[in-house]
Write a structure and sequence with these properties.
Blueprint: H1 2-11, H2 33-47, H3 51-86, H4 94-125, H5 128-146
Helix pairs in contact: 1-2, 1-3, 3-4
Length: 155
């Protein structure tokens, strides 16, 4: 069951929704899915999620994935259309590009808000002890980065 939770979480890295690392701000930079999976699995093991917590987190994540599917698809379409506009042999359609980037900004704002809300909801599933463990891990990682002992990847 634990592996199911962490595999589901790894899939959400694209939308910056890292449930078991909810106290870690941002998205991993320069890390592939395998690295995210290993890190998430480590965190889940260290904080000792119960089956009830795993089920709650899975439910939150599944709901978020369904809710964000349309926005993710539209973002992909917008990126494709912007790429096509920039590769046009004739005139650049600045009006269309402006409209697309405005829509993209709205989607990014909406998905960023949803991501922050999901991280907060997942954090509520953790016990105080688990939150303290996550904060301690975050502090250790920050200390290691400041002493040059870690990559700049951050969750």
């Amino acid at each position: 069951m634990q592996k199911l939770v962490t595999r589901t979480l790894a899939g959400l890295a694209l939308i910056s929704v890292v449930a078991t690392a909810a106290a870690f701000p941002g998205k991993g930079r320069g890390m592939g899915p395998d690295d995210n999976f290993a890190f998430l699995e480590m965190i889940a093991d260290q904080i000792g999620l119960t089956l009830t917590q795993e089920d709650s987190i899975n439910e939150l994540i599944n709901t978020a994935q369904l809710s964000s599917a349309v926005d993710r698809e539209r973002m992909s379409q917008i990126h494709d259309e912007l790429r096509d506009l920039s590769q046009a042999d004739d005139l650049f359609d600045e009006g269309r590009a402006a409209m697309l980037t405005t829509e993209l900004g709205e989607i990014i704002a909406r998905t960023s808000l949803a991501s922050a809300q999901l991280r907060w909801q997942v954090r509520q599933v953790f016990t105080e002890e688990q939150r303290a463990q996550i904060e301690e891990m975050r502090s250790r990682r920050a200390g290691m980065r400041s002493h040059g002992r870690s990559s700049d990847a951050e969750f």
